[in-house]
């Protein structure tokens, strides 16, 4: 069969790599892909933008694509799956209406409240003065989120009032996020530990993927601005077996049922960002209507099942007959970024030290990379690479990943040095 992956990031490289491992797959096209996907066996880049829905429908029809997997959120919000469905083409992902769960934080919060799914207290604002008054009344710490899509950069976890008020100013007055920031959600600050919980959904049933934990802050020790993610590990040590069942019962199943009741039947990957309190209670921070990035990279490294078969089963409505098989080892992913990310950064620098031959249990997934005119690989984005490794413990996976990271260089390269630190501390018995 022929597969098509939509997108150009590290998540899409991982999806294409996993799809190409299927014995049933002849070739995987990636639109538009990156320098890493272009070098993968059985994978070929296609010079079409991820948001060019008509051209991608035409390509899938002309090349007789058997299955398309949509990686990023923007094409889903544009109705890519709806367009493929109308053309009689199989496409894995939620419809435009179902994708509003990520496309609007205000919609998401109201949905959670309507269906009794635990989440933080919140208010929605379009008036900056009203937002400022509410923030002064509630005090800090407090969280300010722009309503629409902002590539993971529209969330401010404000530890003091000045930070919160600046976030309101940026969104509602300065229009720093454009249309995405015309509304903001102000919500209570939650204490605890975050976890990423991803599942495949077939409209009625959900098949859980391995848990993971992202590191959103740019700098070591959870300092600096929020990013799209600077690293992840799997499984998330905070998600115990009992916690896993509670997430399924209190969050995932009610969400799938609630969406169906509201005429938004959900098929595709679903990501729940959760805050797990010290006492074990949990609340939903956000939903994504696709795999997380960089969580996807480390989770797919651990997946032993055939990804294509899982997606086929979801589209056929028979996930209840399957279970996913996982490598028992831990996986860890370190994002290597361009200096200055998530703000301004320079591009066009040549990457050196990339492994010529892939090492066992290690993988470098590309994101913001391209070839220059001399066939050198250069950085063209904020998040450039995700370096992944497997190990018997998180500490061993961490050591392997950073050994590889420190061999790779370009002018301005930046990365955190502490990915997985919570899990490593648990392994050492330093925290419960």
From TrEMBL:
InterPro entries: ATP-grasp (IPR011761), ATP_grasp_subdomain_1 (IPR013815), PreATP-grasp_dom_sf (IPR016185), PRibGlycinamid_synth_ATP-grasp (IPR020561), PRibGlycinamide_synth (IPR000115), PRibGlycinamide_synth_C-dom (IPR020560), PRibGlycinamide_synth_C_sf (IPR037123), PRibGlycinamide_synth_CS (IPR020559)
Keywords: ATP-binding, Ligase, Magnesium, Manganese, Metal-binding, Nucleotide-binding, Purine biosynthesis
A Gene Ontology biological process term: 'de novo' IMP biosynthetic process
Top-rank taxon: Bacteria
Matching Gene3D superfamilies: 3.40.50.20, ATP-grasp fold, A domain, ATP-grasp fold, B domain, Phosphoribosylglycinamide synthetase, C-terminal domain
Keyword ATP-binding part of the UniProt annotation: yes
EC number(s) on file: 6.3.4.13
Record-linked SMART domains: GARS_A, GARS_C
One Pfam match: GARS_C
Co-factor requirement: Mn(2+); Mg(2+)
Record pathway: Purine metabolism; IMP biosynthesis via de novo pathway; N(1)-(5-phospho-D-ribosyl)glycinamide from 5-phospho-alpha-D-ribose 1-diphosphate: step 2/2
Domain ATP-grasp: 109-316
Reaction catalyzed: 5-phospho-beta-D-ribosylamine + glycine + ATP = N(1)-(5-phospho-beta-D-ribosyl)glycinamide + ADP + phosphate + H(+)
GO molecular function, one term: metal ion binding
Annotated Basic and acidic residues bias: 213-223
Region (Disordered): 210-231
Similarity annotation: Belongs to the GARS family.
HAMAP family: GARS
UniProt name for this protein: Phosphoribosylamine--glycine ligase
Organism (species): Nitrococcus mobilis Nb-231
Gene name tied to this protein: purD
């Amino acid at each position: 069969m022929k597969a098509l992956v939509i997108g150009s990031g590290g998540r899409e490289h991982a999806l294409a790599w996993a799809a190409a491992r299927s014995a049933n797959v002849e070739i995987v096209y990636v639109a538009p892909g990156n320098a890493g996907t272009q070098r993968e066996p059985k994978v070929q880049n296609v010079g079409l933008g991820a948001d060019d829905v008509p051209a991608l429908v035409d390509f899938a029809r002309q090349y007789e694509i058997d299955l398309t997997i949509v990686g990023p959120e923007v094409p889903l919000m544009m109705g890519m799956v709806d367009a493929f469905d109308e053309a009689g083409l199989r496409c894995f992902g939620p419809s435009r209406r179902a994708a509003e769960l990520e496309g609007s934080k205000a919609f998401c919060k109201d949905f959670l409240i309507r269906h009794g799914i635990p989440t933080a207290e919140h208010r929605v604002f379009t008036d900056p003065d009203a937002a400022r008054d509410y923030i002064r009344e509630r005090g800090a710490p407090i969280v300010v989120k722009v309503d629409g899509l902002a590539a993971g950069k529209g969330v401010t976890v404000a530890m003091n009032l000045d930070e919160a008020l600046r976030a309101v100013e940026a969104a509602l007055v300065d229009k720093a996020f454009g249309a995405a920031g015309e509304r903001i959600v102000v919500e209570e600050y939650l204490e605890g530990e975050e976890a990423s919980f991803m599942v495949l959904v077939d409209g009625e049933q959900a098949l859980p993927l391995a848990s993971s934990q992202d590191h959103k802050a740019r700098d070591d020790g959870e300092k600096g601005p929020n990013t799209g993610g600077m690293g992840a590990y799997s499984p998330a040590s905070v998600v115990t077996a009992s916690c896993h069942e509670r997430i399924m019962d209190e969050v995932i199943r009610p969400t799938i049922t609630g969406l169906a009741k509201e005429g938004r039947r959900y098929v595709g990957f679903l990501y729940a960002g959760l805050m797990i309190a010290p006492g074990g209670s949990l609340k939903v921070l956000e939903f994504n209507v696709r795999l997380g990035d960089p969580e996807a990279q480390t989770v797919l490294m651990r997946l032993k099942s055939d990804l294509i078969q899982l997606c086929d089963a979801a589209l056929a409505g028979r996930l209840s007959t399957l279970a996913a098989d996982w490598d028992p080892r831990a996986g860890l992913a370190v994002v290597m970024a361009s200096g200055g990310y998530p703000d301004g950064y320079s591009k066009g620098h040549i990457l050196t030290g990339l492994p010529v031959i892939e090492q066992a249990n290690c993988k470098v997934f590309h994101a913001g990379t391209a070839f220059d005119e001399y066939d050198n690989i250069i950085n063209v984005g904020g998040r450039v690479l995700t370096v992944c490794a497997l190990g018997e413990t998180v500490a061993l996976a961490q050591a392997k990943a950073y050994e590889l990271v420190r061999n790779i260089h370009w002018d301005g390269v930046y990365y955190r040095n502490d990915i997985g630190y919570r899990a490593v501390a648990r392994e050492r018995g330093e925290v419960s």
